[in-house]
């Protein structure tokens, strides 16, 4: 018999099946009436009550997470930064507003290279003078580096400002604090990254005015070329003389506008930096999950962290604002959207971390620090948790072993449904049934047993209401050998059921995913893609109700099929009406426990997989295993004594709340980051992405609620409600009630569009103009293309749509980015007031058989060059960098070029290896050289045709526009 199940019998030749109504028929006259009333238990949930409890639980979790994300500053700021808090906040807002009032600051513009640089130098000079009598010295250096980054990005005379703060007696070890003041075209860049520079100015002011000297120094780098392939940081770390003394860095950047700044990268392999953040940060917000997501390449962005860690070989901390990425890199990135508390928390954290590191011994002995990974995460922004990954591995495997031990005990000591049912069916014909009319006789109660006609028995289950099956056998009590055999039999039966239930769970995931995927495809085909972009709740209700409904439906069907297969055959005899509810409760309770074990097992496998692959994010399944397991063990006695009482349900939900609160917190982070990115996604269906994301959320969050489906009396009401929600929102979506974009000033969700007014000129072998074409090249930055624009601007339609191509150097177009589709409307020729000057200076044959061509070019601050060889020739070498990386199978190569204001004329050369044998089918030329010129600012940025087109776009569209020139020469 199962552990905890005892049968006290006076004979071994019958089975007693007691109807559920027997207890109420004692009329309270026997001595056990009060005991039985207390013993009365319920193992099935009332549908409304179960759904209400889970709903309230979910709403409470969402409320807690919402409050934590909205609370930017926790507690009261302390330290020197707080001593000048009023002035600091005022000055920071002043810095932020003054920098953004300059306007967009692209690399090479007067606004970036002169006006912003002068403002920063002026503020730094004030700090230097104000702190002259203090224990620290402030040294300012203006750097104009030239070089290559990522082999094919050349920069020339860009602007960096480096400020060195150190004790007056000097130091050998330096921290680095980095921000950038340049912006993309057409954006004021308040969050990206004027606020970072404003914070750095105030942190510099606070450190410079400390009365106690710091142990180490710090270099503040205000770089002016981050948006152009991270060139500013590369120029500093590879060329500045102070770079050799830098031991670690902090980078502050943005992927959104305002909110909390998250530590989403730390290291690499520098636990002491994570510990510094844990100990010093006043308002923690960090996640190793974000680090692993970012480093996987799932987020189409990069920061200066990569440059400093890769080229400088130094560890660091990467911070970024992530909230409201919908307006990142748009005209809406203005200072009024950044709350003062957002600035305060960033300043508090950076100042505290810098002070901690500049006084630490680790910075001076960084080479002796033990390398390794760290598991780190914050708990609702209140406290940080961090421990070495090796300790995490031990914790994870101990948790996994505990889970398997629990399941092993269940295998050996838990009875199985089939054993009870088979035995009952065999002897049911001879069963003695106690009728409801039987007069109770004098009874006695022993160990809370059943009182039946003067006999005292304990049932074949834990309680009276399970299934009063008392199995007897004419055989003597089992021997040790029989016990082992029975244990093995139970273990095998339990394992089979566990495997089958696991397969059912996986099948339910697959069917749920496919269902939601099909719905997403239908929505896309109906032209309603991204309807949720400005109405996220609509997408959650549509796909969430479909996913939840499908999960509930599959497990409801499985429950009913199982019940019909195993319970009804046993209860097909005369007293079926009394037997069926008994077995129904027994079977459903066992199935509920089985499915709880399945969820535990699946999360345990996820824990083992992530741990074995050295993923620090394995702590998530560890939490999802440990808390439910401990909760289950602690509530086992409560469940046996009182069943599914309100107390049991509340305690169960409280036990699940820690991992579930954190998991919902993580899901908020994922939605906060990835939903806005869909507005910049042109290659993958955002509808499928959201559907999959919501499906995964439902699957993960429902893990330890699936077994409730087997304990609830019915799911008809729940399925009907979910079906109604799904149908209503599907109809609303198809009717076009939800529009993806909005120009609401309080929460804009713009559609991003690129427009270039271009002129393409093709030259023949003699240098004469072979062809010329001009027009407006239009690119959509999201998956909906121009379907919402065409009704408002009929000229932008499929008749002017151009597919992407790979013929000749980039289709004779000055592509800013490679996109899926293009729309091209003929327009007048572009005549820039500062045209590009390009010429071939020389062409000579070398001793080693190549042809060397030297060129000279002078043009705007942003240009790109393409080279394509023909007739079997290939590019042997060039003057750009030490290495060449092929682009498009070694026939197409590209170079990006950018420069500051005072950059000289650019000279470069290429060497072509002529073909050994001419290709008669190929073109006459040996190489084609093309270049693009982008006018991102100034008087050449706009044209009459471009301005006329911009006026026709709706307010909910953000159009980034400029003029471009494409020229190709053949040699």
UniProtKB/TrEMBL annotation:
<keyword id="KW-0862">Zinc</keyword>
<keyword id="KW-0378">Hydrolase</keyword>
<feature type="domain" description="Endoplasmic reticulum metallopeptidase 1/1-A TM">
    <location>
        <begin position="494"/>
        <end position="733"/>
    </location>
</feature>
<protein>
    <recommendedName>
        <fullName>Endoplasmic reticulum metallopeptidase 1</fullName>
    </recommendedName>
</protein>
<dbReference type="Pfam" id="PF22249">
    <property type="entry name" value="ERMP1-TM"/>
</dbReference>
<keyword id="KW-0812">Transmembrane</keyword>
<keyword id="KW-1133">Transmembrane helix</keyword>
<dbReference type="InterPro" id="IPR045175">
    <property type="entry name" value="M28_fam"/>
</dbReference>
<dbReference type="InterPro" id="IPR007484">
    <property type="entry name" value="Peptidase_M28"/>
</dbReference>
<dbReference type="GO" id="GO:0005789">
    <property type="term" value="C:endoplasmic reticulum membrane"/>
</dbReference>
<feature type="transmembrane region" description="Helical">
    <location>
        <begin position="688"/>
        <end position="711"/>
    </location>
</feature>
<keyword id="KW-0256">Endoplasmic reticulum</keyword>
<keyword id="KW-0479">Metal-binding</keyword>
<keyword id="KW-0325">Glycoprotein</keyword>
<dbReference type="GO" id="GO:0046872">
    <property type="term" value="F:metal ion binding"/>
</dbReference>
<feature type="transmembrane region" description="Helical">
    <location>
        <begin position="718"/>
        <end position="741"/>
    </location>
</feature>
<keyword id="KW-0482">Metalloprotease</keyword>
<feature type="transmembrane region" description="Helical">
    <location>
        <begin position="618"/>
        <end position="636"/>
    </location>
</feature>
<dbReference type="GO" id="GO:0008235">
    <property type="term" value="F:metalloexopeptidase activity"/>
</dbReference>
<dbReference type="InterPro" id="IPR053973">
    <property type="entry name" value="ERMP1-like_C"/>
</dbReference>
<comment type="similarity">
    <text>Belongs to the peptidase M28 family.</text>
</comment>
<dbReference type="Pfam" id="PF04389">
    <property type="entry name" value="Peptidase_M28"/>
</dbReference>
<dbReference type="InterPro" id="IPR048024">
    <property type="entry name" value="Fxna-like_M28_dom"/>
</dbReference>
<feature type="domain" description="Endoplasmic reticulum metallopeptidase 1-like C-terminal">
    <location>
        <begin position="748"/>
        <end position="969"/>
    </location>
</feature>
<feature type="domain" description="Peptidase M28">
    <location>
        <begin position="160"/>
        <end position="353"/>
    </location>
</feature>
<feature type="transmembrane region" description="Helical">
    <location>
        <begin position="498"/>
        <end position="524"/>
    </location>
</feature>
<feature type="transmembrane region" description="Helical">
    <location>
        <begin position="387"/>
        <end position="409"/>
    </location>
</feature>
<feature type="transmembrane region" description="Helical">
    <location>
        <begin position="536"/>
        <end position="558"/>
    </location>
</feature>
<dbReference type="GO" id="GO:0006508">
    <property type="term" value="P:proteolysis"/>
</dbReference>
<dbReference type="Pfam" id="PF22248">
    <property type="entry name" value="ERMP1_C"/>
</dbReference>
<keyword id="KW-0645">Protease</keyword>
<dbReference type="InterPro" id="IPR053974">
    <property type="entry name" value="ERMP1_1-A_TM"/>
</dbReference>
<keyword id="KW-0472">Membrane</keyword>
<feature type="transmembrane region" description="Helical">
    <location>
        <begin position="43"/>
        <end position="67"/>
    </location>
</feature>
<feature type="transmembrane region" description="Helical">
    <location>
        <begin position="594"/>
        <end position="612"/>
    </location>
</feature>
<feature type="transmembrane region" description="Helical">
    <location>
        <begin position="648"/>
        <end position="668"/>
    </location>
</feature>
